């Protein structure tokens, strides 16, 4: 076959110019490879880097520090903490002198390594404090004024940590006495800056008379230094000094220096003085605050707009603390002035509108807008403090418009910060929380997932406050004040699902577990439960699928309609437990684990025990392996003698696995599981001392399931009696009469979940009604008590998880439609779909586990449903 002709308009040029171009490209490749060849070591270099293997660690360290290269010396110094732990005496005698010699001519990397190693030795307490001061302190002091700023700061941090543990005499002779000369104007700026930080640390180590006689004169001298950097540095240390010398000396010595520094010509010095004053407000009394500090603060605020924007950033960050500290001394006019100043900062930069692109904006304008956004972010951070400042009762009049602007700010960091503060704001407003309902919806619908992620951290608590605060506290009307909540929640979940941020999606699904306490069972069933099922079957991220599975189980746990419960259980068994994709069958086992955790033992045995153990015949080894790991938990749900027949079936399945399993990995897990099952002690129907707490918790779960079942019956009877004129009065009377009755019932009485004939075998219909009318408010009481326990067992995620599952195709997942979850009408409901136990039969044919047609991918041959076929009567 002839080669294809060249494309039209493209000429194949083999001319001289083209060949020269190729040669130039090859030459560039040679130049690129040349540094790689040069980096290879010659035999002579390798010989010099080789060390005798018979040398001990100390001998090798001494040799490398004496004759090795810099990289080898750096390695020895990095290994110095290990040498000190292994042989401290020899290390101090032989290695440390070599380290001192090497540091005299060392480069930056070795100096930084030495500073870190010295600090590690101090923290690990490898030697005594006296020995450390004798051996290491002089080395640290010697390199404090290194010409490289990074190295100098590293040694200074080490020294400041050493000061914490050294005795007073050592500090005085080795550090404080030399500091007198180091802090003089004749010394370098670097030396005086170091002196400022050391003075701030030394203050807490000495008595008041030593501080007053030897340290405070140095502090005053450095506060009046000719260099603004030194004045600013010393000003920031005044907070530590004030805490060490007490209120009296602070008022007489530190406060005058701060007032003088607040009028300094350098903006950084004024900023340091302002921040120090704010941090020291608690030390000063009311007179000092009103007569001395308040005028300084007012002057600083007035000059901030005219000065550099960096002052505004600091002022906005400290404004909440400032207003809180000066709250008691403000006049009404001053109170209003500071509030207006805060409101002005909240909208700083938003008034400037421009119609051109970012590329056309000058760089200085962009930088200014970033600073303004930082100011608004700090204002959002201080909003809870400002609500306290104005009193939560005045929030609507004073700060609601500001809160609205912050929630709709064009910058994501501002909205992110207000989302973090939303829960605090809700708690402060208390009964007035209904005022910020719309802002909650706005943040839930925010286009940035960072904002959503920040908001959902406390979403259950926020929603509970929304539903119980103010006028919306009535249970029946708990959603009337939040008409847009459900659309906002569903839209937020869809945005998280469409993004690559699966951790946000997982967290949101976990927080949805609070919804039974917030909205009605029908709303959860029609708006959220179907979505959880879809995520379980179609999402590719395992932690997300598990979060959806657990939340679905909680939805099912507190569903108040038995028919809906049976519908969901049927789908779980048919489309997950018996699905054609082995991935779905694995998720069914995850769901079984959550059912064991959340529901009572009898509920699991009634609906999920047989479908779970039938997976011992699964054709995929991974499914059988996962089931084997779950079998101990499955056995823990059995009670003897009531569940003796289920125990026999479990033992039969385990015996079949031992005899017929051919996969060596599965067989190894089966053998370990058999040993664990043999060691397990069975729970009895009657209470046992060793299982008392677990049995008590299980009984409580069973009690709640019974209440939910009978609550539905009572609601149906109430609906049937709605046509009678006195039915409501009778219903309310029974509700009042049963409050004392239910309180007198002993909680330790075992309660069993009724079977199909439980409602007909009740002793007295009237007593049954009166005993359980109180469960009308069950979602508001029982769930809240249990929800905290359920949250402690939330599913774990792996930080390094890769959100992908290989081999999952659209054909391997059964699609679900909204119509499939709609409740069947009474006329079309099959007879087998009553409140009788929905236990699948065990007539499913076994499949050979080693069949090559049924292993290797998620999609295997379709599996037959083992549930009885449900045929509707014509």
Automatic annotation (TrEMBL):
Feature: compositional bias, Basic residues: 865-874
Gene Ontology molecular-function annotations: protein phosphatase regulator activity
Compositional bias ranges of the Polar residues kind: 842-859
Chief location category: cytoplasm
Organism: Heterocephalus glaber
Region (Disordered): 714-768, 826-874
Protein name from the UniProt record: Serine/threonine-protein phosphatase 4 regulatory subunit 4
Biased composition (Basic and acidic residues): 714-739
Task of the protein: Putative regulatory subunit of serine/threonine-protein phosphatase 4.
GO cellular component: cytosol; protein serine/threonine phosphatase complex
Ranges of compositional bias, category Low complexity: 746-764, 826-841
Keywords for the protein's UniProt record, in alphabetical order: Coiled coil, Cytoplasm, Phosphoprotein, Repeat
Subcellular localization(s) per the UniProt record: Cytoplasm
PROSITE patterns to which the protein is assigned, alphabetical: HEAT_REPEAT
HEAT repeats: 215-252, 254-292
Oligomer and partners: Serine/threonine-protein phosphatase 4 (PP4) occurs in different assemblies of the catalytic and one or more regulatory subunits. Component of the PP4 complex PPP4C-PPP4R4.
């Amino acid at each position: 076959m002839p080669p294809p002709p060249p494309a039209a308009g493209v000429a194949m040029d083999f001319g001289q110019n083209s060949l020269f171009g190729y040669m130039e490209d090859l030459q560039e490749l040679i130049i690129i490879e040349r540094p790689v060849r040069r980096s290879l070591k010659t035999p002579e270099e390798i010989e010099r880097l080789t060390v005798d293997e018979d040398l001990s660690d100390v001998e090798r360290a001494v040799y490398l520090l004496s004759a090795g290269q810099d990289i080898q010396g750096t390695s020895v110094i990095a290994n110095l903490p290990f040498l000190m732990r292994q042989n401290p005496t020899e290390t101090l005698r032989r290695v440390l002198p070599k380290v001192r010699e090497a540091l005299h001519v060392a480069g930056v990397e070795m100096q930084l390594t030495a500073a870190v190693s010295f600090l590690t030795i101090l923290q690990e307490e490898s030697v005594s404090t006296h020995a450390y001061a004798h051996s290491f302190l002089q080395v640290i002091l010697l390199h404090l004024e290194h010409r490289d700023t990074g190295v100098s700061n590293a040694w200074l941090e080490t020294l400041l940590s050493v000061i914490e543990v050294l005795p007073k005499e050592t500090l005085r002779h080795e550090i404080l006495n030399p500091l007198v000369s180091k802090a003089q104007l004749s010394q370098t700026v670097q030396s005086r800056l170091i002196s400022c930080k050391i003075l701030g640390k030394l203050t807490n180590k000495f008595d008041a008379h030593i501080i007053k006689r030897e340290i405070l004169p140095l502090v005053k001298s450095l506060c009046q230094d000719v260099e603004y950097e030194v004045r600013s540095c010393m000003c920031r240390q005044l907070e530590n000094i004030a805490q060490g010398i007490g209120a009296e000396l602070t008022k007489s010595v530190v406060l005058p220096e701060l007032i003088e520094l607040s009028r300094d010509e350098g903006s950084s010095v004024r900023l340091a003085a302002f921040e120090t004053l704010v941090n020291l407000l608690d030390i000063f009394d009311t007179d000092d605050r009103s007569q001395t500090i308040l005028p300084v603060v007012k002057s600083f605020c007035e000059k901030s707009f005219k000065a550099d924007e960096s002052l505004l950033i600091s002022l906005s960050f400290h404004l909440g603390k400032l207003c809180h500290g000066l709250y008691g001394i403000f006049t009404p006019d001053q109170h209003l002035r500071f509030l207006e100043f805060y409101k002005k900062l909240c909208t700083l930069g938003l008034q400037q509108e421009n119609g051109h692109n970012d590329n056309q904006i000058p760089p200085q304008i962009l930088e200014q807008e970033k600073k303004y956004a930082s100011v608004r972010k700090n204002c959002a951070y201080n909003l809870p403090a400002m609500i306290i400042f104005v009193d939560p009762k005045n929030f609507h009049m004073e700060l609601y418009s500001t809160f609205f602007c912050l929630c709709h700010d064009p910058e994501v960091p501002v909205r992110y910060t207000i989302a973090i503060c939303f829960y605090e704001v809700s708690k402060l407003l208390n009964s007035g929380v209904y005022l910020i309902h719309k802002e909650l919806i706005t943040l839930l619908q925010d286009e940035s997932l960072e904002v959503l992620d920040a908001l959902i951290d406390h979403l259950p608590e926020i929603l509970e406050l929304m539903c119980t605060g103010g006028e919306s506290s009535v249970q029946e009307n708990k959603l009337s004040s939040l008409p847009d909540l459900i659309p906002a929640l569903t839209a937020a979940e869809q945005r998280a699902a469409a993004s690559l941020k699966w951790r946000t999606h997982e967290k949101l699904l976990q927080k949805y577990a609070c919804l039974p306490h917030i909205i009605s069972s029908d709303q959860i069933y029609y708006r959220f439960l179907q979505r959880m099922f879809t995520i379980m079957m179609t999402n590719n991220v395992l932690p997300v699928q598990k979060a959806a599975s657990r939340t679905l189980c909680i939805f099912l746990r507190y569903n108040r309609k038995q028919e809906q419960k049976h519908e969901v259980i049927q789908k779980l068994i048919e489309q997950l437990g018996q699905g054609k994709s082995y991935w779905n069958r694995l998720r069914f086992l995850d769901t079984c684990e959550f059912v064991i955790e959340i529901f009572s033992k009898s509920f699991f045995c009634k609906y999920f025990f047989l479908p779970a153990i039938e997976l011992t015949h699964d054709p995929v080894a991974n499914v059988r392996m996962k089931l084997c790991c779950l079998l101990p938990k499955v056995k823990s749900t059995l009670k003897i003698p009531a569940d003796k027949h289920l125990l026999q079936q479990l033992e039969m399945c385990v015996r079949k696995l031992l005899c017929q399993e051919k996969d060596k990995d599965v067989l190894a897990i089966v053998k370990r599981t058999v040993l664990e099952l043999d060691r397990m002690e069975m729970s009895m129907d009657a209470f046992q001392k060793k299982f008392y707490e677990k049995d008590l918790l299980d009984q409580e779960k069973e009690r709640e399931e019974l209440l939910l079942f009978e609550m539905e019956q009572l609601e149906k009877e109430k609906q049937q009696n709605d046509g009678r004129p006195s039915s409501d009065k009778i219903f309310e009377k029974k509700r009042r009469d049963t409050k004392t009755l239910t309180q007198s019932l002993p909680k330790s009485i075992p309660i069993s979940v009724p079977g199909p004939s439980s409602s007909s075998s009740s002793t007295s219909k009237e007593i049954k009604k009166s005993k359980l009318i109180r469960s009308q408010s069950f979602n508001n009481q029982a769930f809240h008590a249990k929800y905290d326990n359920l949250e402690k067992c939330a599913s774990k995620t792996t930080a390094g998880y890769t959100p992908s599952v290989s081999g999952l195709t659209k054909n391997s997942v059964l699609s679900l439609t909204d119509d499939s979850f709609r409740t069947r009408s009474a006329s079309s409901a099959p007879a087998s779909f009553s409140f009788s136990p929905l236990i699948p039969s065990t007539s499913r044919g076994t499949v050979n586990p080693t069949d090559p047609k049924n292993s290797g991918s998620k999609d295997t041959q379709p599996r037959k449903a083992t549930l009885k076929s449900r045929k509707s009567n014509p």
